[in-house]
Design a protein that fits this description.
With 206 residues, this protein is α/β, with parallel strands linked by helices. It is built from 5 helices and 6 strands, in the order H-E-E-H-H-E-E-H-E-H-E. Helix 2 packs across helix 3 and helix 4 runs parallel beside helix 5. The two termini are 21 Å apart.
């Protein structure tokens, strides 16, 4: 994709920092085994409300960080767990050997099947609803907002994020991608941190 020329007086590095598209990447692979050349210093985890590890990417991150140690830390720091739509921070523990310093546990929503309270009045309760018309949209958007706010708080330079809620939680993948990209782009327009965001997909379909 072509990008506009740098603003007069900007260096190429300045331009890259101010161009959100240049700071967003997509990678297919294992979020716990990213090449060190990526320089990722924080990863997001698609967690559940207990913060005690689950399946999929959640299990992989717990295993790589040290399952018992990570569960013990989260139980001590967050005895009530984490509500859906919110994000909690923990150290990277066993992943620190890869240069990762932070894990951000994002609890995404389960996509509803027939629960009317999840939709705006009059909106269909399926993927034909306009983006933002379901409560699940709002909860997933909240996850991304909090991820990026915590990246600023913890001075995170390069944040890697898995496909939140699109596995066993059944959130429609194209819809989740629009929410994820829209919030990443909007945040980077206004903030210097994180300098880079990489969406790490388990497979090409994601």
């Amino acid at each position: 994709m072509d990008h506009p020329l740098p603003i007069s007086g900007q260096t190429p590095a300045d331009h890259a920092l101010n161009d959100p598209i240049a700071r967003i990447a997509v990678h297919v692979g294992d979020i716990t085994a990213l090449p060190e050349t990526f320089g990722v210093d924080a990863i997001a985890n698609a967690a559940n409300e207990s913060l005690a590890g689950g399946g999929g990417v959640d299990r992989a991150i717990h295993d790589a960080a040290g399952r018992d140690e990570l569960i013990a830390y989260n139980r001590e720091q967050y005895p009530a767990g984490c509500p859906t739509g919110l994000v909690k921070h923990s150290p990277a523990l066993g992943l620190e050997a890869q240069g990762i310093k932070h894990i951000l546990h994002a609890v995404g929503p389960v996509w509803p099947e027939d629960d009317a309270q999840y939709a705006m009045p009059g909106a269909p309760i399926d993927d034909t609803a306009k983006l933002g018309y379901t409560y699940a949209d709002t909860l997933l958007a909240s996850c991304y907002t909090q991820l990026f706010n915590l990246a600023v708080k913890y001075d995170i330079q390069h944040l890697a994020i898995p496909a939140i809620s699109t596995g066993v939680y059944r959130f429609p993948k194209p819809r989740a991608a629009r929410i994820a990209f829209g919030h990443a782009h909007g945040h980077l327009l206004r903030n210097d941190l994180p300098q880079r965001i990489t969406f790490v997909c388990f497979n090409e379909e994601d």
